[in-house]
Design goal:
Blueprint (H helix, E strand, L loop, with lengths): L2 E5 L2 E4 L4 E8 L7 E7 L6 E6 L5 E3 L7 E6 L4 E6 L8 E9 L4 E4 L3 E6 L1
Parallel strand pairs: 2-11
Antiparallel strand pairs: 1-3, 3-8, 4-5, 4-9, 5-6, 7-8, 9-10, 9-11
């Protein structure tokens, strides 16, 4: 059974840092691009960052320089390290597994991040 489980969300102060984790199971993790998305109240889900099967990374303009995505294939885990957090970062963060060639796109349940001012 395919499963993506996010963890690490919580309350963090303005300007603070937070690290999220997503542990995958039930599929060959090494063959999938992994990404993070987020959804703020009243807004659509937006893409945040991606780390490809080859280890390449891409970031949304809104988070470039403040966020780092990485993966550990031995642990089937993808990470999102966030710094200089502000109110725009308050959202539910979702882990995504994608294999575009086969039109596969899987999602976790999400973990909530709240930045307190």
């Amino acid at each position: 059974q395919v499963q993506l489980v996010e963890s690490g969300g919580g309350l963090v102060q303005f300007g603070g840092s937070l690290s999220l984790s997503c542990t995958a199971s039930g599929f060959d993790f090494d063959l999938f691009d992994m990404g993070w998305y987020r959804q703020a109240p009243g807004k659509q889900r937006e893409w945040v960052a991606t780390v490809t099967v080859g280890g390449g990374t891409n970031y949304a303009d809104s988070v470039t320089g403040r966020i780092s995505i990485s993966r550990d294939n031995a642990k089937s885990t993808v990470y999102l390290q966030m710094t200089s957090l502000n109110s725009e970062d308050t959202a539910v963060y979702y882990c995504n597994a994608r294999r575009s060639l086969y039109k596969i796109n899987w999602w976790g349940q999400g973990t909530s991040v709240t930045v307190s001012s």
